[in-house]
Amino acid sequence: MDNQTQINVYLITGFLGAGKTTLLNNLLKSLEGSRNVVIENEFGKASIDGTLISKQYSQLYELNNGCICCSLDEELYDVLNMLAFSDERPENLFIETTGIADAGTVAEIFKREDVIKVFKLKKVICVTDAETVEDYLNETEETIRQIVVSDLVIINKTNFVSANYLVKLENLMHSINPFAEIFLSSDGQIPLEILENKRDDNFDISEKPDAIFTHASGHKIKTVTFKTENEFYKDYLIHTLNVSLMLHYKQIYRIKGFIKLEGSNEKILVQSTGKRLTLESYGTWNENEIPVSELVFIGLGLELSSIQRILRPAIKKIAAEKLKSMKLSILKG
Ligand SMILES: Nc1nc2c(ncn2[C@@H]2O[C@H](COP(=O)(O)OP(=O)(O)OP(=O)(O)O)[C@@H](O)[C@H]2O)c(=O)[nH]1
């Protein structure tokens, strides 16, 4: 790792016309004076969005030959390389994806070991259009995925709909992505502080009930929570989840949760980004409680029984007597 500071990355996604460029322009204006770089991804060679972005950036890179989530990762990689080796690194990098991008696949790039040394993915932001998002949710798989992988979901164009409908939309967003912060805005205006909220600040699985969102095609997007007082074998867990993500990518949209690994008191945050799984340390488990590992799966037609089957080989069963004595010793203090 070199001694230069990491570059903060903000990935802006959201369906066509939702207000991504409008939000980006507001952020650039608020951050005027910082070194901000923008990567704009757009279909087709002619740059339209590039000209719509206000000039409050230090550098603009336009990737216009396809969608970065499927065909442009090498081109994106080249730009990242350039930024990493520039004399004066930017402070912030904003990436605006095409309206149909799979943001999870783009976010995945920022989990690569070499990329992580220089770039810190601070937030995946999904901009939605209050007036049309419900229809898009029913019609397009992309919109669901964009919401599910985001840390911050902005319901934009709130001036087009009633207050009652906004409450319904907020609930809908929560049911699709229980991890995201939901923010209402118009004209893509958000306070800068939101960008600083830690990615997992409001992440408390136990308060999120399992939810079902029925897609118009009849498919059910479900949130299924698996809980256990047992521990996980690290290697088996990584293997079984990676295999499941590969085989069932079209079905499993997201995995997120805290777990306890065999022989360690570290609290581990597990999450999937695209097809990639990451495990990060998140402090330690509270000594006065029996650790309960919880993994939330969000996806199409998921069933708890199938999740149990996937996880079974990775679980190290703690004998009932041992668990009982651990509980007793905690009670006695
Ligand atoms: N009335 C209204 N219009 C808005 C609002 N936010 C954005 N717009 C307008 O909506 C249109 C689309 O906004 P953009 O920011 O270009 O949307 P985008 O998501 O970048 O669009 P694509 O790049 O095509 O996917 C523009 O004409 C904006 O001025 C809002 O809150 N209210």
TrEMBL record:
InterPro entries recorded: CobW-likC_sf, CobW-like_C, CobW/HypB/UreG_nucleotide-bd, P-loop_NTPase, Zinc-reg_GTPase_activator
Database matches in SMART domains: CobW_C
Statement: the UniProt record of this protein carries the keyword Plastid: no
GO function terms (MF aspect): hydrolase activity; nucleotide binding
Single GO cellular component term: cytoplasm
Keyword Chaperone: yes
Catalytic activity: GTP + H2O = GDP + phosphate + H(+)
SUPFAM superfamilies: Hypothetical protein YjiA, C-terminal domain, P-loop containing nucleoside triphosphate hydrolases
One Pfam match: CobW_C
Gene3D superfamilies named in the record: CobW-like, C-terminal domain (3.30.1220.10), P-loop containing nucleotide triphosphate hydrolases (3.40.50.300)
Domain CobW C-terminal: from-to ranges: 221-315
Family of this protein: Belongs to the SIMIBI class G3E GTPase family. ZNG1 subfamily.
Function: Zinc chaperone that directly transfers zinc cofactor to target proteins, thereby activating them. Zinc is transferred from the CXCC motif in the GTPase domain to the zinc binding site in target proteins in a process requiring GTP hydrolysis.
Name used for this protein in its record: GTP-binding protein
